[in-house]
Amino acid sequence: QVQLVESGGGLxxxxxxxxxxCAASGNIFSINAMGWYRQAPGKQRELVAGITSxxxxxxxxxxxxxxxxxxxxxxxxxxxxxxSLKPEDTAVYYCAGESKLTMSYDYWGQGTQVTVST
Length: 118
Prior knowledge:
This protein has 118 residues and is mostly beta strands. The chain has no helices and eleven strands. It starts with a strand and ends with a strand.
């Protein structure tokens, strides 16, 4: 089993910054890539950013240049640095882990709320 625990969400004004953290524990050797997803009220969950085990990253167009994903393989932690936040970034942010077996994001955290005020 894999456990993912997010932290770092909160309320911030537009233009501000937040850093989310996701600590992985358990059978971490079963995890390949890691990613951050978000889900706003009434909308589908969407990929924000992903990072492979070797550090290759990919971003959704709507966060390019503003968000940075990184991982610390020693601490088994993935980060999402969010700068220049906009009200439309308001959502619950989820950390996800890709299973090496299924090559799907099978592992999920409980989510952390990010609210950006005008």
